[in-house]
Each structure stands twice: as C-alpha cells, then as structure tokens.
Amino acid sequence: MKVSMKLLVVGVALMSAIFTGCEKDKDPDPKTNNTDGLTLIASGYTDAGSMLVKVWAKDSLYSQYTPLFIEVKDSATNTVIEDAHIEIMPMMEMTTMTHSAPFENPTSATAVNGLFPCAVVFQMPGEMGWTLNVMVQENVNGGMGDVTFPLAVITPTPTRTRVVTPANGGNKLVISYVQPTSPKVGINDFEITLHSKESMDSWPGIENYTVEIDPQMPSMGHGSPNNVNPTHSANGHYNGQVNFTMTGVWNVNLRIMDGTTVVDSTAYFEVTLQ
Amino acid sequence: MKSLAYGIFFALTALSAVAQKQDSILFFNKGNITETVFDVEEILVRPTCACVGECSCGMTAEDNYSENRFSCTDAILAKNGRIELMKRGNFAFEPVMNGMASDRLNLTIDGMKIFGACTDKMDPVTSYVEPNNMKSVSVQHGSTGSMFGSSLGGSINMETNGATINPNKPISGEVGVGFQSAALGANALFSLNYSRARWAIRANGVYRRFQNYRAGGGAEVQFTQFEKWNGAISAKYMPTDKDVIRFDFIMDEGYNIGYAALPMDVLFAKAKIYGLTYQHYPSQTWFEKFETKVYANTVTHSMDDTKRPNVVMHMDMPGWTKTFGGYADGRLKFGKHKLTVRLDGYHTNARAEMTMYPNNEAPMFMLTWPDVDKLDFGLYVQDDIQFNIKRSLSFSGRLEYLNTNVIDDFGVQQAAVFNQDVSKADHRLLKTASVSYTEILGKGFSGWFTAGYAERSPSITEQYAFYIFNAYDGYDYVGFNDVKTEKAVQGDLGFKYDGKRFQARATGFYYHIYDYILGGIDSTLDAMTIGARGVKVSRNLEWAYMTGGNLELSYSPLKILTLSNTSSYTYGNTFEGDPLPLVPPFKNVSGIKWSHQKGFVQLECESAANQPRTNPEFGEMKTPAYALLNLRASYFFNFGQKRLTLNGGIENLLDHNYRTHLDWGGIPRPGINGYLNVSFTF
Question: How many angstroms separate the CA of residue B406 from the nearest CA in chain A?
Fold first, then answer.
C-alpha cells in the first residue's frame, strides 16, 4: 500500500514536470494555432513601415455584426507584432455615393494571442464596393503604414442586420444581431448593437436607448417567459437574456425606445434552433 | 445505477440468508400435496392482501369475473364501492379511489411498481392485467396501503394468477370468445396450465378489437376504437415443499386506441413486465413466510394525431418508462403479534418527448418529461395484534427515501427558462403511519376505525412537466421542482353486519390534505399548445379535504334471491371553499339477482346524482344525473370435468345518453349494449 502511494506521488511529480516542461517549450511560439477556426479574408503589405497585415474572420463576410481579427507581421522577419495601435475604416463605394459603416477599433494596443480584435457592422451586402482600410502604427520598431482591402460581403440567412428609419424621424438606425450564435433551448445570452447614422461617415453606437425583446414562435403563436431585456453595456452593445422553450423557428421581436418615445417596433431577428 | 442494483441485491441476499437458516417442515398443514389442498393452501398461505382495518381483501377477481368473462380489469375494480373510473376514451380507464386519481394512489401488479409512459395518463397500470390473468385485487385505503409504497389515497395491488401446480390435472385451461354490440367489439381469450409434480407453466392471452361505440340515442362516438392483446407466461417451480420460485412475464400491446376526449389518439402502447419471485415458508411457528422478488418493466407509448381532422400541425409524442426494483419481506409471529417487515427499492426512468412539424420549417422539439430518474428505498413494518377473539389492533409504518434527478441537460436548460434549477438531485423522505382498531361488537356485527398519516412525493408531471396539455381544463401544465410533499391526516370508520340473510357494511372516511398539489394559473406565462387557455404551474394549496362514505346492503329473502344496494358519496373542498376537481357525485347501484345452481339472472340499476359542485378554474362541467338498467344472465353446461359457460346481457337497456362526472370532454358513454360470451373450461 505504502509503496504504491510512493509510486503515485513520484508519478504525479513526473507528470507535472513533463507538462510544465511542455508549456515552457511552447512559450516561444504560442501563436502557431491562434488562427485555427478562422477564415483568412484578406492579406497585404502596408504602403509604408514594412508590415504584412492579415484580416481574419470567423467565417466569410456577411452583412451583419462581424468580429474581425487583424494580424500584423514584420514583413522582413515575419515575426508577429503584438504591440501596435490599429485603426480600421470600412467603406462602401456605390455608384452614386460612398458611405462608411459602424465599426469598432481594437480597444488595446496589445494583441490578444497575436491578433487585434475589432468589428464591423456591414449594414448592407456587396460583392464589390466594400473596402476595409487598416492603419497600423506599431510600437516595436516605430513603423507606420496602411493597407486597403477589397471585401465581398454577402447576405446572411436569416437577416442579421436591420436598417430602419425611426418612427420619430431621427437618424437611421442600424440594428445588428450579435448573439446567441449557437442558440439552445433554455436561457441564452442575447446581444444586439444599435448604431445611428449621423452622417455618411459617422455611425456611432447608441448608448441611451431602451430595448425590449419578445421572442415568439410564429408557427405556434406563443412566446417564452422570463426574458431579460437587453441594456446598454458599451459602444452601442445591448446585453440581455432570451429564453427558448423548444427547438424550431423563433422570431425575437424588438421594441426600441428613446425614453418613452418608440423609435422602432418593426425589427426582429429570426433564430432557428435545430 | 450499478450501486443501486448492488444495493438491492445485497439487501435481498441478506434477507434471504436469514430465511435460509430455517429448517424444513412441510408448510402444508394438511400434509399431503393433493391437488385441492395444494391449490387452496397456496392461496391461504400466501395472503393476497395484508389488510389493516378497512380494506377489501375479499374482492377476488373470480367473483366478479364470473359474471362476465370478458370484463376489463377496470370494470371489475369499479365494482368496489370506493373506486370510480376516469374515462378519456373507451380504453384503459384511470382508477379514482376515495376521490383521488393515480398520482395519489399506488397501483401495483404483484407488488411491482409500474409507471405509465403517457403524459396524458392514457396508460394506467390497470390496463396491463387482464381479468383472465387476475387472481385477486387487494384494495387498501389511505395510509394502510403503504406496504406497496407511499400514497395518500391508498393502494390497489393486482395479483396475477400465475401457474398452478396441480399434478392431478396436468392440463387445464379455458378458451372463449365474446361479442358486444355497442362498439361491434370482439374478444377472444385463452389460458392453458400445464403441471407436473413440482413445476407448472401457464400461458394466457386476450385479444380485443372494438370499433367506435354508439352512445345512447345511436350517435357514433368518433375516436373510441381500440385494439389490444395481452399475453402472459408464468412458470412456477417448487424445489422443496416450502420453497416456491416463480417467474412471470406479461406483455401488453395496444394499437390505434381512440381517445375521444383528447386531441390525439394512441398509435401504440406497449408494456413488458418481468418478475422473479422466491417464497419460503419456514418451519418455525414464529416465522410464517419469507418472500423476495426482483422485477423489471418497460412501457412505451406513442401518440398519434394523423387520423384527426383539422390538425393544425402534426406532432409526435412518444414516452418511455423503464423500471426495475425488488423487495423482500418476512411475516413473523410472536404470541399475539403478527409482524410483517418489508424492504423495497426501485429505480425508474421516465422520458417523454414532443416534436411538432410545421410546414417548411425546422421541427419543434421539447422534453415534456425531462428524462427523470427516481431512486427509491422503503422500509415497511406492520404489527397486527390480536388481543383476543374480539379485539385486534394494527400498526403500520413506512419510511421511504426518494431521490429524483433530471439526467438530460436539455431538460435542465428547459426548466431554467422558468427560473427553476433542476440540475441538483431532489431528496425526499416520506413517512406513513397508521393505526387500526377492529372490534367484534356483537354477533356478526363488527366495527373498526383507522387513523393515519401519509405523505406522497409529487408525480413527474407535477414536478417537471414542460407544457403538458390537459384536455380537461384546456391548460398547459408546467411542473414546479420545489413543490412540497403532499401530506394527509386520515380517518376511516366502518361497521359491518354479517347476518344469515342480511349483510350490511358502512364506511366513512375523511382525508385532511396539507400542501395539496394542484396546478394554478400563471397569467405571466404564454400557453404553448395552440388553442390552450393558458398555463398552470404546480403549487401547493394550504390544505384541502376529501370526505365521503359508502353503504353496501345485501338481503336474501330466499336462498335464490338476492337484493343488493351500494351507495357511495365523496365530497372535496379546497381550503378556500372551492370544490376539488373531479370528485364523483352520489352514486348508487341496486340489483336483484336470481340464482340457480347453474347460473343466474340479474337486473341492475346504476344511477348517479348530478354533480353541481365543480371547480371553475379546472374548467369542469356540471354533470347531470342519470340512471341505467343492466340485465345480465349466465348459464353453464357440464361435460364431465369440462364446462361450457354462456353469459350475456344487455347494458344500458333503455339506451340512455349519459356520462359520469369523471368522464373527460363531455363524451357520452355507450348506449344500449348487448353482449354474449361463450367460454369453455377444461
């Protein structure tokens, strides 16, 4: 009995040594797999500063709230740059006009796992016309430059972005669905973004609206209980909880208010639980 | 799961080890194993019912069965004055005893726990034993029935026939066919017993096929058809004169069963029931009997709406239960004391699904029973004290531990929508105790009273239902995980007079039920079912009470003539003074029977008062009074040892259109119905 205990202790010690050893081995190149599961959207060199910029996303691009991941490498050494100030600018060039889109710059100059997360709400689809400009000011060598990528954005099924003209006649409102991305029966975190079209180039997040949600099964005519209305968290994001009582097709109906004034009550997002 | 199996196994082995120590002495008092002695003794030695106080041990199936060879089990039960039947179609009625339905009763077959797999209770356990396989039914009221499990209303245990060891008659059996007119119903049955010196095997089967029946006045009642068969095999082996080993297998399958009062029918209902019993009759005078049993059963149920018109959306609703368990009990005798000790345990799993199929859309799926495991252990002790020839006292008590778990995470997530956390095990300790006193007050005149306390755990529907539609009140039902254990304080009182020509029996009961479980409307919730009126969530009413009684009178002015009269009445209220739902009104059955050595003719009048006391929240309808006349007759011919029996009759002679208060959906019962059965026993 005692012998086996000793053996066990030795075994555990050995194992932990091996595992910590492995972790240390990995340390120098921790980002080998940081883009696993991501799709490379675009890649190109900056006009100055000798940097290779790659844009990754979770999927090909759809007209919806889209998290993007910017990877920056020193084009000479091919080392990943993890300390950089990055600004993005999405643009849509149409025949008669050009406009931007709601977007979120990386919040930090330090990369997460070698990537700089940011986001764009592509409020409309476009096989051609969308571009994304990425400006990088890296803090390792002090290089600075930018690169512009053409993007193809297609329409998702079901619709994940609604652009509505408010009932009270204000600026156009972009409502975008963020989650649940894998909806399940039960309680789901629910998140949308609200952005206002102040001008062609200015689409700031709205922070002071009230949002009510009402999930309904259109083919059954019933809803679900105990949903939590989304409230503003940051940058135009509204977080709440949506409950689904069964699989099938649900519509999450929205009612968006500015104080007591109804801004919109037509928008909804369809969610299918398989 | 495994540990449970081991637990039961060890418990049983431990007890059987105690039993094994006994020395061998013939347990047959009368010595030789002659066929008759054997048969009779076996029944006597193995009491079909350990009655405490007022209960109905005497109700052997044979008495009632002989009147109509093709009765259904539920019809036989209904002859007990305190049992009513709740009807949703023309098949497998749910028994209601003392105003309490199956959630508040223990329904067992040979002591085996079996749980219906239908969320709409379309498959009560009583449908799995056919009368030609039933030896007796023991009915015990309230807390006195706790030998078979914790319940408030009492226990109904159906004892199956089993094989008969009768070496003098190696082959015996019966074949029969029957026909009835109201539903153009056909029945066929057989049983066959083969016996050698130390073992016997018996097989029996029933097949029934009924069309839609016609109600009083002649109108056809749609969706009341059914087809079913039931088969059973029983084998018995006696290695010694004081040991019996018995194996039973019952298989029951129903198809295309109409449920007129529900929005759906049953595609199929299947049950398989296995039991292995060992009985030992020790030689010591203080140790009368030891019995142990292991059992398992599965019930599968599938509903069907494809034959219904105007179905908005097709849906599937299958349900399953799987149960296994065992018990060991011993009957001991010390002086004036007769002691019964039973240790039992079971494990059951229940799961029910609902999938709806909208056009061109993803199917909608939910778990109406979220895959629930129940693990239960119980200890039962009964002490019967015979002070003297006139006075006896009985104590019984049961302690039961129940552990309930939702094992499918899907179910846990579902319940979270109602802010209910069902991820953790639900533990309950259920306590039952009763005391009964019986005294012979005079010649043929005796009286008894019972006082008891009982607890019962909530049913799976009451605890975990997820939008189960109740067609009676039109509400979707949602369970409540933390619903409190229901408790009752109970009192029973009875008198009996057994004269030469006149017999009378009067009983009264009162159940004061605390934390009465009843669905309450939650107006914040949306109904799921299309057309439902809303959602009800299980809750505990502060208290409710149920009281009633029955009176049975029988008078034989001549040896061949018997007049009988049975009346029963139940009254139930919530603490707020509202009537409890589904309480039967005053009912009376009067009969006049002319008996002959080879048969009888009987005219029976069944009547019920109207039931104006309805629970409006339950959507109950008032039920008008009715009275029916039934005429029955039987005659047999003997051919040596063999016998041909004819029995027939006309039920609802006046073709009255009626329904009873417990019938769902205002669906009328069958109108005039002639039946004729022929059976041949050999």
Answer: 15
Number of domains present in the structure of chain A? 2
> pLDDT by residue (tens digit) across B179-200?
999 999 999 999 999 998 889 9
Specify the DSSP class assigned to residue A81: P
**Residue A209 structural domain:** 161-273
Kindly state whether residues A47 and A146 are assigned to the same domain: yes
Query: A21 exposed, middle or buried (CB, 10 Å; 0-12, 13-18, 19+)?
Result: exposed
Contact B361 A219 (CB under 8 A): yes
Which superfamily is assigned to B2-681 in CATH? Answer: TonB-dependent receptor, beta-barrel domain (2.40.170.20)
Is A228 an interface residue toward B (CB < 8 Å)?
no
In the structure encoding, which two tokens stand for residue B662, read together? 């417990």
The residue among B324, B405, B328 whose CA lies nearest residue B369 is B405
Which residues of chain A are within 8 Å of residue B358 when distances are taken between CB atoms?
219-220, 248-249
List the domain boundaries for chain B: 2-681
- The alpha-carbon gap from A131 to the nearest alpha carbon of chain B, in Å, equals 36
Residue B257 and residue B255: Cα distance in Å, rounded?
Answer: 5
Min CA distance, B348 vs chain A (Å)? Answer: 25
Are A118 and A175 contained in the same domain? no
Longest dimension (CA), chain A: 84
Q: Flag if A249 and B358 touch (Cβ within 8 Å).
A: yes
The ipTM (two decimal places) reads: 0.80
Those residues whose C-beta lies under 8 Å from the C-beta of residue B123, and which sit 6 or more positions away, are B92, B116, B117, B266, B269, B271, B299, B301
Instruction: Report CB contact under 8 Å: B526, A272.
Output: no
Q: Tell me which of B274 and B582 has the higher pLDDT.
A: B274
Percentage of chain A beyond pLDDT 90 is 71
Q: Which of A154-163, B24-33, B292-301 has the lowest mean pLDDT?
A: B24-33
Whether residue A186 sits in one domain with residue A141: no
